[in-house]
Amino acid sequence: MTHIISDIDIIKETDKEACELARISEDNAAPTQRKLYIESYGCQMNFSDSEIVTSIMIDLGYGTTSNYHEADVIFLNTCSIRDNAEVKVRKRLAAFGPVKKKNKNLQIGVLGCMAERLKSQLLDEEKLVDMVVGPDAYKSLPALLAQVDDGHKAVNVFLSREETYADITPVRLNSNGLCAYISIMRGCNNMCSFCIVPYTRGRERSRDANSIVKEAHDLYQEGYREVTLLGQNVDSYHWESEGKTETVNFAQLLEKVALVNPLLRVRFSTSHPKDITDEVLYTMKKHHNICKYIHLPAQSGDNRILDLMARSYTREWYLGKIEAINRIMEGECTISTDLIVGFCGETEEEHQNTLDLYRQVRYNYAYMFAYSERPGTPAAKNLVDDIAADVKQRRLAELIALERSITLEKNHEAIGKTFEVLVEGPSKRNEEEWGGRNSQYQWVVFPKKECKKGDYIQVKITHCTTGTLNGVIVDEQS
Ligand code: SAH
Ligand code: SF4
Ligand code: F3S
After folding, report:
1. Suppose 41 and one of 79, 113, 325, 331 were both cysteines; which one would form an S-S bond, judging by CB atoms 3.0 to 4.6 Å apart?
2. Ligand 1 neighbour 299 (Cβ under 6 A)
3. Is the pTM of this model over 0.85?
4. Per-residue pLDDT tens digits for 104-131
């Protein structure tokens, strides 16, 4: 959820999927152990899956390494959401070529959404790949690795209707020891016409509510103070116990996790505007530790485009949800969004409607993308990707400029206010200054004084930039 502006691309695009990349940060392999190196691309679900994969590999006797030159197995957990996400993975694979030449026993696996989309075709296209493993097939990793040990290539891209990995305790990667992801559901049953996810992640299924609450509880005991419940569409979470004696919807799940401990913050992502209910909003209002921040992707501000995207809501419906968030949480809740520019046939006027929606909602920030046609999706089959690349980039630049100016205005509105902040540690720029997030997910920096990681403190905001609120620690809410 960090807000990243890619400076890799010449044309700027805020691209949380393609440029956020997690590597193992700890080397915990004993000298005798085989070593795993894993890199993750894409959304938080993929990052969370890498933690499951690492857990499976550790059970198999592997240790982890942050240096791929000394690895016995390299896994790339990949993303297919836009073409540039796949291009990055292919470039990365090319970089592993020389390592594989030196070490003939090195096994390279492509995991995740690109594996699922391309299946065994990937083995033909990328000769150094030994293994292709889809997101629901990680439990077969031991068998697949054995197959590769025997000198064969291995593929499992079976999509399951049941797998939730509820029985696997993830190994936390790149963790600050305070904030963790909990995957609560997998797959997506929506068919937004532009989106590859239903094809790479399969049908929607919800994880056992008790296992989610237990994971949150265990994390709290280990010192974690913030959990983010993850799913492509968390609001359609629906779990039934065996015999259907208990059913749990998303609002009820949120409440259960909030009740684990008042000192454990709860976040969630992502909400679909058609499914988020007032019950969820009232549950957020009721519990102080459910963070007042909602990521509510709009995709477009124009009704004709929304219809072509098969988002199943109108601009007016969407604005109704924004109104409900602001009303029920009395303006305390920050809101961010995802927007796509240059979708099939989008006119200048329709693009203006997206800018206009942005001005009307005044989001705290947004992730913005140029439309990238994905093979096999309804849009690729039925619509023409006819907006020229330079037009898409110009529209994207306009949207990004608007976002930046409104983000700054919104941050200015925080000056003079006092927020509860969960202390994460020293800020990157200055050891004397520490940072943490408020409930609204804004990054707050302050002179350290007497506080330590994991404390909740009150910070009064004195000034700001686009990315940071700066303040001072105060004793009481003022
Ligand atoms: N499940 C989430 C989002 C998943 S993908 C939801 O429904 O909101 C994250 C974001 O990537 C999407 O919200 C969308 O804005 C963007 N995206 C998805 N497919 C895309 C495509 N083909 N081209 C450009 N952006 C895309
Ligand atoms: Fe893709 Fe739509 Fe599902 Fe989100 S809700 S993952 S955009 S199909
Ligand atoms: Fe990418 Fe797959 Fe996530 S396509 S955005 S890694 S679900």
Report:
1. 79
2. yes
3. yes
4. 899 999 999 999 999 999 999 999 999 9
